[in-house]
Amino acid sequence: MAAKSNVRPTYAVISKTAGVSEATVSRVLNGDENVHPDRIKAVQDAVAKLGYKKHRAASSLASGRTGLIAVVIDDDLSIFSDPFWATVTSGISRVLMENDLQTLLMVANLDSIDGPVAHSLQGGEVDGAIFFQLHKDALIKRLVKQKLPMVITGTPHTSNDFVFVDTDNFGGAHEATNHLFGRGCTNVAIITGDIETTAGRQRLDGYNQAYRKSGHVPSKQLIAEGDYSFESGKAAMQRLLEQVANLDGVFACNDVMALGAIAAIEEAGRVVPDHIKVVGFDDSLLAQTSRPPLTSVRQDIGALGEAAANLMIAQLRGETPEPCILSTELVIRESA
Amino acid sequence: MAAKSNVRPTYAVISKTAGVSEATVSRVLNGDENVHPDRIKAVQDAVAKLGYKKHRAASSLASGRTGLIAVVIDDDLSIFSDPFWATVTSGISRVLMENDLQTLLMVANLDSIDGPVAHSLQGGEVDGAIFFQLHKDALIKRLVKQKLPMVITGTPHTSNDFVFVDTDNFGGAHEATNHLFGRGCTNVAIITGDIETTAGRQRLDGYNQAYRKSGHVPSKQLIAEGDYSFESGKAAMQRLLEQVANLDGVFACNDVMALGAIAAIEEAGRVVPDHIKVVGFDDSLLAQTSRPPLTSVRQDIGALGEAAANLMIAQLRGETPEPCILSTELVIRESA
DNA sequence: CGATTATGTGAAAGCGGTTTCACATAATCG
DNA sequence: CGATTATGTGAAACCGCTTTCACATAATCG
Question: Were both Cys, which of A152, A208, B95, B152 would link to B309 (CB 3.0–4.6 Å)?
Answer without folding.
Answer: B95
